[in-house]
Write a structure and sequence with these properties.
single chain; alpha+beta; elongated; S16 Ribosomal Protein, Chain: A
Length: 176
């Protein structure tokens, strides 16, 4: 059991395949049991659970990455429980109850991670918008202050000029 690379450069996704160990990585395979897309968050895993369990029971050796994927999906745990049933440690019904409990707990964890990702992205977006609004307000205050200073300077410059014009015009009126 191994991964077979697909996709374009720097955007790979993988098919989970059953292949002879002597075959090349992307070469001939015996059976395709699923796909794995690490580009999404969390990674998307589509797996035919029954086929994977059957191949494991027949002795297929998964690579480290495929073993992690199978463990994440519960195939390895199911194989472990079936081994316990075969040894007589517990019944098949008990094994099924344990597996269903594990699946429910795993689904809660995955959903919590998805909710956490959504909440963190929303909160970071809100924080970014608040920071941007604060920056815009500071910028508007700075512009208003600069405009007020420029207006005051222009008024101060025009006031002495108006007084000089008024003083020059006033003596001419009295002489005349």
């Amino acid at each position: 059991m191994r991964l077979q690379r697909q996709g374009r450069k720097r955007y790979a996704y993988y098919h989970i395949v059953i292949a002879d160990s002597r075959a090349p990585r992307d070469g001939r395979n015996i059976d395709r049991i699923g796909s794995y897309n690490p580009n999404t968050n969390p990674a998307t895993i589509d797996l035919d659970f029954d086929k994977a369990l059957t191949w494991l029971a027949n002795g297929a050796q998964p690579t480290d990455t495929v073993r992690a994927i199978l463990s994440y999906k519960g195939v390895m745990y199911k194989k472990h429980l079936l081994g316990g049933v075969a040894k007589g440690a517990f019944t098949a019904e008990e094994a099924e109850v344990k597996f269903e409990a594990w699946v429910a707990e795993k689904a809660k964890k995955v959903q919590a991670k998805k909710d956490g990702l959504v909440n963190s992205s929303e909160s970071s977006r809100k924080a970014q918008l608040a920071a941007e609004a604060k920056k815009n307000a500071e910028r508007a205050q700075a512009i208003a202050k600069r405009n007020a200073e420029a207006a005051a300077a222009a008024q101060a410059a025009s006031a002495p000029a108006a007084e000089e014009v008024a003083e020059e015009a006033a003596p001419e009126e009295t002489e005349g």
